[in-house]
């Protein structure tokens, strides 16, 4: 029996991934800022939320499809942008892209993806959103915007919650850097995980692929603190497609973003990877929904671990949700089969929760 068959929950995927990944890589994916109380706060907020069961309703015919910017997505959840996904397994970016194409959901393509943005959107059959980091003086940033437009991206996601890269002690203890800096500690770590190491050796060292060509430089540790509302205005002016701003937790910022002409907002704490003391996005979600009003596109990520969690955030005011690190763990645990297994788990959990609560479509939530 393959490893994928043993994945019945997000925690199963995490447990199996922890066995297979080098400690440095697992802690890069799994870690959060500070002593990780922010991540615990996210989980506790979702765990404490309840769903009200309803009875004696015909819920035999249920649909998980949802409208997303005028198109139909087969699920009300997609793939959050994650950097260096190919660390979880060679080819992980394209596994996610194929999943996005199959279910017609957005694949968030990170600025620091380990596969070029052009290749990902091709494999995703257009179901890809490009996630943008502003860094330095912005010169390279706006080059990436033009490149994403030329590649055919219709939706741009500006991430605004990383003015400085968060301090994640688990990464720091391992000496995690991109590109890798290999010393005695990392060598021992890789040697003790030969299956991962041999696979990576055969595929070639993962790199930040969007910066592998001349004229595109990126320093992961470079300050991103110079982005302002003027930066957003310039981006709005030059981007003709859909513009989403990700990393919003304050309703005042949400109102200002709506007034600035963005097309959607993603409520997120970056998986609690940036500011340990940030509030739970789940608690911020209803206040932001109230501030921007009904009908304005509102998305959610951070801490989702099940289909029931998706139903909770939809009930609290989100229109769509995004899974992150759990998908990487599924790939690390069982490859592409593991990814599809966990996706099916999330789908089944959501469908079952809808039946229990008496709804047959996402529009009824």
From TrEMBL:
GO terms assigned for molecular function: FMN binding; oxidoreductase activity
FMN hydroxy acid dehydrogenase domain ranges (all copies): 2-365
Residues given in the record as FMN binding sites: 81-83, 110, 131, 159, 246, 268, 301-305, 324-325
Active site: 270
Keyword vocabulary terms for this entry: Flavoprotein, FMN, Oxidoreductase
Cofactor(s) named in the record: FMN
Positions bound to glyoxylate: 28, 133, 168, 270, 273
Keyword Zinc-finger tagged: no
Family per record: Belongs to the FMN-dependent alpha-hydroxy acid dehydrogenase family.
PANTHER family membership: 2-HYDROXYACID OXIDASE 1, S -2-HYDROXY-ACID OXIDASE-RELATED
Name assigned to this protein: Alpha-hydroxy-acid oxidizing protein
Species this protein is from: Sulfitobacter albidus
């Amino acid at each position: 029996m393959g490893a994928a068959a043993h994945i019945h929950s997000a925690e199963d995927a995490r447990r199996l991934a922890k066995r297979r990944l080098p400690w440095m890589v697992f802690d890069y994916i799994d870690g959060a800022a500070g002593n990780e109380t922010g991540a615990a706060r996210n989980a506790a907020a979702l765990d404490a939320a309840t769903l009200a069961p309803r009875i004696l309703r015909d819920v035999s015919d249920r649909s998980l499809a949802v409208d997303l910017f005028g198109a139909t997505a087969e699920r009300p959840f997609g793939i959050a942008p994650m950097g260096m996904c190919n660390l979880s397994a060679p080819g992980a970016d394209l596994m996610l892209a194929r999943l996005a194409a199959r279910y017609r959901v957005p694949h968030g393509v990170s600025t620091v993806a380990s596969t070029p943005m052009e290749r990902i959107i091709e494999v995703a059959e257009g179901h890809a959103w490009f996630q943008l980091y502003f860094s330095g003086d912005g010169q390279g940033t706006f080059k990436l915007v033009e490149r994403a437009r030329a590649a055919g991206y219709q939706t741009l996601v500006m991430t605004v919650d990383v003015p400085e890269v968060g301090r994640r002690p688990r990464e720091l203890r391992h000496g995690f850097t991109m590109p890798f800096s290999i010393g005695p500690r990392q060598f021992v770590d890789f040697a003790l995980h030969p299956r991962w190491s041999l696979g990576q050796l055969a595929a070639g060292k993962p790199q930040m692929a969007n910066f592998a060509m001349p004229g595109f430089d990126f320093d992961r540790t470079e300050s991103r603190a110079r982005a302002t509302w003027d930066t957003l205005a310039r981006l709005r002016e030059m981007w003709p497609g859909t513009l989403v701003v990700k990393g919003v937790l304050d309703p005042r910022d949400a109102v200002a973003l709506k007034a600035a002409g963005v097309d959607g907002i993603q409520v997120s704490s970056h998986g609690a990877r940036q500011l340990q003391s940030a509030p739970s996005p789940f608690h911020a979600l209803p206040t932001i929904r109230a501030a921007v009003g009904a009908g304005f596109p509102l998305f959610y990520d951070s801490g989702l671990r099940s289909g029931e969690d998706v139903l909770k955030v939809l009930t609290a005011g989100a229109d769509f949700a995004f899974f992150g690190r759990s998908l990487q763990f599924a790939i690390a645990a069982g490859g592409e089969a593991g990814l599809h297994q966990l996706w099916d788990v999330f789908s089944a959990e959501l469908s079952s929760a809808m039946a229990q609560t008496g709804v047959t479509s996402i529009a009824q939530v």
